[in-house]
Amino acid sequence: MRALRIVLIIAVVLGGLFVAADRVAVGFAEDKVAEQLRSSEGLEKDPEVSIKGFPFLTQVLGGELDDVEIGIDDLEASNGGGKVRIAELNARMLGVAFSSDYSSATAAEATGSARIGYDELLKAAKVEPVEVAPGVTAKVVGLSDGGNGKIKVAVEATVLGQTLPEPVEVVSSAKVEGGKTVQVSADKLPKLGAVPVAEQRLRQITDFQQVIDGLPAGIELDKVEARGDGVEITVTGSQVKLAG
User: What is the residue extent of each domain of the chain?
Assistant: First the structure.
């Protein structure tokens, strides 16, 4: 019995050492992936990287991680000529194959979400006055949560030299086009004073789109919904290049 106890004690000690080594290795790998992502995406600080699954070392020997979660704040993406700041990007990566020095990594599948503030989305709207009818100009002066996943677009109109007392509020729907573009369209067009405005002319103001490019290769926009602090965009991807 004494010999059995000794064997059990040794097994427990070795198991504890393996777990400790495994957790140390995980921390090292998370730091390396974060460094590579910061470098490849031009981030100001390291993103949050969490490698799931146990044991980690056996995943390393196989050259592929089962499940990796990544959180990036203040990611700057291109928007077809300018820049747009993504406040938060959170993604879950499955089947992450990597090189031995962690210089390259590719995820088989990815899902997640990105949040863009209304101030950033406003950059794509008509914020300079545009003539929509003889004597009538209009411009977008603000975006906010319209409830039920809709965006409220505030339009300021000037009719015959007189600015309307309050901005006209337009409830709009948002959707993703082509995996890279957020399209905002008015559900119902407003009236700007008593002067009739052609629908096509008015939609030049109320409707707009924001291109979001420059995300990690392989990630595309899927769905978009308005929230209190901005629009939340569901992202998906396959063969997503994380580094290298």
Answer: 2-113, 120-211
